[in-house]
Amino acid sequence: MTMLAQLMAIVALAIWLTMIFARGFFWRMRERDDDLAPLSPAAAASITATAIVPARDEAETIARCVTSLLQQQCGARFDVVLVDDQSSDGTGALARQAAEAIGQAARLTVLRAGDPPPGWTGKLNAMRAGLAHVEARDGVKPDYILFTDADIAHEPDVLARLLGCAQREGRVLVSLMAKLACDSAAERALVPAFIYFFDMLYPFAWVNDPARSAAAAAGGCMLAQRDALARAGGLEVIRAALIDDCALGAAMKKVGPVWLGLTQRVKSLRPYPRFSDIRNMVTRSAYAQLRYSPLRLTGATLGMAMTFLAAPALAFHPDTFVGFPAALAFALMALSFRPILRFYGLSAWRGVALPLVAAIFMGFTLESAWRHWRGQGGAWKGRYQADAESAMR
């Protein structure tokens, strides 16, 4: 047993040395929009952009979302298309009222989406309807499409920064990971880890490197070059994707460089006051990330256990050749969590709880698979959407 424990401790340490030094330094969380210089009003004057906002029962947040978009200080010609995805709470009317309240009603179009065709998720169908409307309009077509969610608020300089990155660096997709709410006990415990695991899975430095194949995006804020989107095959190529943002990032990187980073300027308006709220967010698509494969699920579960649970379990082993490498691996793990904790204004001591948090996310992933097997995968506001995607694998 001691030899097995020694082997596990050494493997755990090797994993964390690799994670720290050979995975794009993901844990440093250095890719941020602070480094994106805004495009000057003079340079933006010749650019046209349109925001497409899919919205389904977003009465609580839609006014703040639409207002923040219509108040962008950029210099580009910019309008907003809201696609009301069969809401029952007056989302579309509230959006119009918000635009009228700031004297910008002429720059807002509200559409009503129909039922998703076979093979399409509801959100992507709404995005498709908005894009089809934009393409059918008379006059100059937009150079860029800003896909954003109805529960997101943007500070006034966000569009200028996105355009600055796209124009200066030739990026066909520029995406910002919206800062999630982190006020409740559940949010403080789990939200930083959610971002940490995402960056671990898709190291932002690798995503932003044109020479690497890694690709991803964050659905709350994605500025796409319209012509490049068409070359990538449009939204049709990702029509069934539950993780639509990363699917779009992968499609767009095939036709040009992309950029993804963190931000304090784009914020989610959706609170997660209870653990069950975050659980539902994760279980909706976690199994989709594993391509609905039981083999991948088994491998991911074992890999997470070895990565996050083995080191703390063995750190206090009486055999020095077990305890020391395990303790070192545990220390590297906890320290790697500090930058994202700092980003959310939380104590670095929370890093020692990362193994427990990882175990919780492992449970969410297993539950996601269970929900899928029961025909309840991809649950979102009355729709179960995972079956469409799994059928197209």
Structural write-up:
With 393 residues, the protein is an alpha/beta fold. It folds into 2 domains: 2-27 and 285-390, no CATH class; 31-270, Spore Coat Polysaccharide Biosynthesis Protein SpsA, Chain A (Alpha-Beta Complex). The protein has helices spanning 2-21, 41-44, 62-70, 91-101, 122-136, 158-169, 185-201, 204-207, 226-231, 244-253, 275-283, 286-289, 294-314, 320-336, 338-343, 354-373, 386-390; strands spanning 48-55, 77-84, 108-112, 144-148, 152-154, 173-179, 221-225, 258-268, 379-380, 383-384. The strands form 2 sheets. Strands 3-2-1-4-7-6-8-5 form an 8-stranded mixed beta sheet, with helices on both faces. It has a two-stranded antiparallel sheet with strand order 9-10. α4 links the parallel β2 and β3. α1 crosses α13, α11 packs across α16 and α13 (294-314) runs antiparallel to α16. The radius of gyration is 22 Å and the shape is globular.
Reading the helices and strands in chain order gives HHEHEHEHEEHEHHEHHEHHHHHHEEH
Which structural class best describes the helix and strand composition?
A: alpha/beta
Radius of gyration: 22 Å
Determine the CATH superfamily of the largest domain: Spore Coat Polysaccharide Biosynthesis Protein SpsA, Chain A
Q: Which CATH class of the largest domain applies here?
A: Alpha Beta
